[in-house]
Design brief:
Layout (H helix, E strand, L loop, with lengths): L1 E4 L5 E4 L1 E2 L2 E2 L6 H9 L4 H5 L3 H14 L5 H12 L5 H12 L7 H24 L4 E2 L2 E2 L1 H27 L3 H27 L4 H26 L4 H24 L13 H4 L5 H9 L2 H12 L5 H13 L2 H20 L6 H15 L3
Helix pairs in contact: 5-6, 5-9, 5-16, 6-7, 6-8, 6-9, 8-9, 9-10, 10-15, 10-16, 12-14, 12-15, 15-16
């Protein structure tokens, strides 16, 4: 049994035995202060602010091309970067594993993840026929599908070469597995969406592969680049997986709210995506109600009245409360894993980052 001091100064007993952590532990008393504090992303990022500036410079350099059109598109992609949550998970994971200063392998690992992830987003926009990404025009909207597909291929090759040229085989294996899982998760969701027969177990398989695998790879890459052993790398990966699942459940909850989040309320229902609130609500319904709701999902045709009927049904059936409890459970399990690492500014920021991901309003 290891007694670990939580960030509020109290003590927490965590059972660590062969990599397993006792479920007697509840991190609420350690994380409650962060739940009350509206910490900004800049404040969370403070311990690695210098590294993030350096990463951006290195990442811009890795995107350079001698082809004028390609260089123009790369510049457009870099300018509309998001919150850079993924590099933050890489850097913080390396630091909690003892890397200080961060080695070059950590920067390359973060760049590899960004390159491969960006490639999948560019291809996704083509597949989904989407004209926008994060409020900006997508690559396919500005330069058409053929160029967008080639740009995605270019980004993929840049990531692969970055690892191969520096013998980062362990990092490449971690990220390649994540991309494979992401693709499998997308295809599984498409397959199930045709019949709308997604169970809760299948839902968690899908989001573990589609969303959580990428954050898990960020944490595993950070630990691996810091020279951590196999057990610690797996612990970091599992931590990231649980954070990713909580993150996706939060995203699914947005479909039933009114906050301005960059996607219209009810868009998942419109696209016939079965998420946790709806799956739970259907499990509680009688046969006739279930048949009516599934009909509305399958044949909504973008009709607001049918989409609203599904939203109302889920709210009245306790689907939102059930999903919130599941999200908090995965958050707690992630914190249990995090608290097995030594106290440090990086661990503090990771705890804040977890709460930021599930308390965000967009």
């Amino acid at each position: 049994m290891a007694a670990l001091r939580c960030l509020s100064g109290t003590h927490t007993n965590v059972m660590v035995e062969k990599g397993a952590i006792s479920h007697r532990f509840s991190p609420y008393h350690c994380s409650a202060q962060f739940a009350r504090m509206k910490v900004t992303l800049d404040e969370i990022q403070a311990p690695i602010a210098g590294e993030m500036v350096e990463f951006e410079r290195k990442f811009r350099q890795s995107m350079k091309s001698n082809v004028l059109l390609l260089d123009k598109i790369m510049g457009y992609i870099v300018k509309r970067k998001g919150k850079q949550i993924r590099p933050m998970f890489v850097f913080f994971s390396a630091k909690i594993c003892g890397a200080d200063p961060l080695p070059e392998a950590t920067f390359r690992g973060a760049a590899l993840i960004e390159l491969l992830h960006t490639a999948t987003l560019v291809h996704d926009d083509v597949v989904d026929e989407s004209n926008y990404r994060r409020g900006f025009f997508s690559i396919n909207a500005l330069w058409k599908n053929k160029i967008a597909v080639l740009v995605g291929d270019y980004l993929l090759s840049k990531g692969l070469l970055l690892s191969l040229e520096n013998d980062d085989y362990a990092l490449l294996k971690i990220v390649s597995n994540a991309v494979r899982e992401l693709s499998e998760g997308e295809l599984l969701q498409i397959e199930k969406a045709r019949r709308l027969d997604i169970t809760e177990d299948v839902y968690f398989d899908i989001i573990r592969q589609k969303t959580a695998s990428l954050i898990a790879s960020c944490c595993a890459v950070g630990a691996s680049s810091a020279g951590a052993d196999t057990a610690i790398i797996e612990q970091a990966r599992l931590f990231g997986e649980k954070v990713g699942i909580a993150f996706q459940i939060k995203d699914d909850l947005f479909d039933y709210g009114t906050a301005e989040i960059g996607k219209p309320v009810g868009i998942d229902i419109k696209e016939k995506k079965m998420t946790l609130p709806l799956i739970y609500a259907l499990q509680q319904a009688d046969w006739l109600t279930k048949r009516r709701i599934i009909y509305n999902v399958k044949n909504n045709d973008g009709r607001k009245d049918r989409i609203q009927a599904v939203i109302d049904f889920v709210k009245q059936s306790g689907g939102l409360d059930y999903a919130i409890q599941a999200m908090q459970r995965y958050r707690d399990e992630a914190l249990q894993l995090l608290y097995t690492f030594p106290v440090s500014p990086a661990r503090t920021s990771l705890e804040q980052l977890i709460n930021y991901t599930i308390e965000r309003e967009k």
